[in-house]
Amino acid sequence: MMFKKYLIFIAAVLGLLGGFLGAYLFAVERHPQPPVFKPAQSPYASAIFANGIVEGSQDSGANINLYPEVVAPVLKVLVRDGQSVSAGTALLQLDDTVQKASTEQLRLQAEAAQTLLQQLHAQPRPETLAIAKAQLTQAEANVQATRDSFDKRQRTFEADPRAISRDVLDGARHALAQAEAARDVAARQLGLTQAGAWQYDIASQEKQWQALNQSYLAARAQLAKYTLRAPVDGVVLTVNAARGGTAGTSGAYNPYTQGYDPVVVMSGPQDTLAVRCFVDEILVARLPKPEQVRAEMSIRGTEQKVALSFDRVLPLVTPKIQLSNQRQEKVDLRVLPVLFRFKHADAPVVYPGQLVDVYIGSKTP
Fold this sequence. Notes:
alpha+beta; Elongation Factor Tu (Ef-tu), domain 3; CATH 2.40.50.100; four-stranded antiparallel β-sheet; 5 helices; 25% strand
């Protein structure tokens, strides 16, 4: 019994000490930790705040998304991320084995049709013309021989009808007629040979050659599409295809997002970068006139600020799209895109795709 009283007394003392300790700890004043960096603040007395995303600088549009116009396995990736390229540089090579064989087949067919057309233009062939002339000479000699034979039989019959029968005379006459007919055929054949190819045969063959040549040119143009090339001078921002994968008109499959990405994303030369800002429609009326606009960009996670040069307003208010590229909105909010530029040298650690805070103010008159 006494042991239980001691336990109760000890518990009470401990509880009392705990209460004093808790009161002391809660009474101690704790100062907040200083922020890692200062929060972004407007540099202007009156300004419009907007979210922005850094892009490659283009004369029009945003970054360049490249998609092949054909679907095929990737044979070679010829560039790396961050590489500067000139217009026409090969970026990606797709498997063109079948298309190359089809193109070569059409080329050979077109050349065969052209050769036949040249053959028609080259008629008459000298050897064929010589044969036709020889055949006419032979036919004329045959006519002369049969005429001489007929004349002899006719004179004999006229001198003495009993010396030769009329059947023999008629046979000689018929032989002469056949020889003369054969000579006429040989003469016409020579004329036909000398005339060369018929104009309608030439026209028909020329159309066939043109049709086959156009098919070959179309196949060659299709073959060129198996090499993805840079449309402009610029920088390769990202390559979303690898050797052995498949690329097509929808892009390349991304297993992480389970969607399709552009095969290659490019920007223009990065001496200058662009910032695309999205101004809420309720603030559009407060935008200064273009000649009065001034803006400053605050880079998130740092205290660095960069002055921006106004480029243009994209005059189309559109539904807001989250910068994560998700097309699902919880509110009915529309925004006006405004484009600014800055020299990359002023912010060398800023890259396309980076999110920034932008303050838009007005120049003092």
